[in-house]
Design brief:
The chain is of the alpha+beta class. The chain has 5 helices and 7 strands.
Length: 159
């Protein structure tokens, strides 16, 4: 499995994986499929170029099987977003590699912690992040794309 940060030329792959993620688990992300599907090619190219939020793709040979994003929030928190692995690749270790890429990037940028938001009702994701060293904080907010879902902040601290 190869994990690498996206480049502008990866925009079609990023678009395909992101839209697949939004169709597969529509209530797990802060954006809806309907919104993301309306992004034009330039918007996808900008996302892939890592000028703001950075993205990584997971490759199994030539096939993109997962993604994760990360960036610095308005509160100056290095935040993991948009984590997804296609169903056939779940349990293969690709998710661990994607999270490790985000942790490494955070530390490389001088951050000793990574934040993320997850619905505690999403037991598979919550348990995965707990195994990756994240802990729940007492911070809650409605999911932007689905405000009836409440997400909780998790935090990972570098050793």
């Amino acid at each position: 499995m190869l994990i690498r940060q996206t480049e502008t030329t990866d925009w079609i792959r990023l678009k395909q994986v992101r839209l697949a993620a939004l169709l597969d688990t529509p209530t797990a992300f802060g954006v809806s499929y309907q919104t993301a599907a309306k992004y034009d090619d330039e918007q996808w190219k900008e996302r892939a170029s890592s000028t703001g939020t950075e993205f990584w793709l997971a490759f199994d040979g030539d096939k993109s099987v997962g993604m994760v994003g990360a960036g610095v929030s308005i509160a100056n928190r290095y935040t993991l977003i948009g984590m997804w692995v296609e169903p056939a690749a779940r349990g293969s270790g690709v998710a661990v590699q994607l999270v490790d890429a985000v942790k490494a990037r955070a530390m490389g940028k001088g951050f000793d912690r990574v934040f993320l938001d997850v619905s505690p009702d999403n037991a598979r994701a919550s348990n995965f992040y707990l195994k990756q060293g994240f802990d729940f904080l007492d911070e809650w907010e409605p999911l932007e794309s689905h405000p009836y879902i409440t997400v909780q902040t998790m935090l990972w601290l570098a050793n």
